[in-house]
Design a protein that fits this description.
13 strands, Immunoglobulin-like, 265 residues, 5-stranded mixed sheet, binds copper (II) ion, 36% helix, alpha+beta
């Protein structure tokens, strides 16, 4: 079932509703032609992808609880917005081209390719690169003053957290449960006993690799005491999916009491 467009000499195949009817197939009435049916399906798939997982929860990078995660989430939404606008413009351009049903002149085609295919993407990507570079300082906490230091050691299949004093002595130690002081910038020294893992608390910031024989550093701050979870973000073996940990954010006095062995988080 279908028809051949007289002007373009293209053969169109007809498919049934539901879809938007851009052109009419005379043989079967109000149905859409196959080349155009893809647009609403992409819309539906995009809506499902956006709505099903939601954007909140103890392990959501889009539910930030600190400055680093805030910078990442803002960048993500900015890129999503720009991508959505570009996608919408491309769909509109395709629909307009199909409705017109005739080719552009050589000069207009060249101009379109240079502007839409060269200048616009270059400007947009350069702007996003500049913004990403500008926010990278916030993401890693590079210039922040440090209030507390935690040594993080990953191993199959555990996270060991050691809270250090100014001389590097261990004040408190916990496994698969990380206690943090509310509103304090914490510097994490991240290493591994065996294979490469990755330390990641999505609500607080980006991930950083835990590499045997090396200590990587990242600074994160928790500004909310809400539920939080961390997860190994590097496939490290068969039990990788179970290599998560709880994050407990305590008021400073509570945290100090816990650190001194007077409380239990
Ligand atoms: Cu791991």
């Amino acid at each position: 079932m279908g028809f051949t467009d007289a002007r373009s000499d293209l053969r169109f195949t007809c498919v049934p509703w539901p879809s938007i009817c851009i052109r009419r197939c005379e043989e079967v009435g109000s149905i859409v032609c196959a080349p155009l049916a893809i647009a609403p399906r992409i819309c539906l798939a995009s809506a499902i992808v956006l709505l099903v997982p939601a954007c909140a929860g103890p392990q959501s990078a889009l539910d930030p609880a600190g400055p680093s995660a805030e910078a990442i989430a803002t960048t993500w939404w900015l890129m999503f917005g720009v991508g959505a606008v570009v996608w919408g413009l491309v769909v509109v351009a395709v629909l307009l081209a199909l409705r017109r049903g005739r080719a552009l002149s050589q000069a207009a085609g060249t101009r379109l390719i240079v502007v839409a295919g060269g200048i616009v993407p270059t400007v947009l990507l350069a702007a996003l690169l500049a913004y990403g570079t500008y926010t990278s300082g916030r993401v890693t906490g590079r210039d922040a003053d440090v209030d507390h230091v935690v040594r993080v050691t990953a191993r199959q299949w555990q996270w060991v957290f050691e809270h250090l004093d100014d001389d590097g002595r261990v004040l408190a130690r916990s496994i698969d449960r990380l206690s943090l002081p509310l509103g304090a910038m914490v510097e994490f020294h991240v290493g591994s006993d065996d294979v490469i893992h990755a330390f990641w608390i999505p609500r607080l910031g980006g991930k950083i690799d835990a590499i045997p024989g090396r200590w990587n550093t990242i600074r994160l701050r928790a500004d909310q005491a809400g539920p939080m979870r961390g997860q190994c973000a590097e496939f490290c073996g068969l039990e990788h999916a179970l290599m998560g940990f709880d994050v407990v954010v305590l008021e400073r006095a509570q945290f100090d009491a816990w650190l001194a062995g007077e409380g239990t988080p």
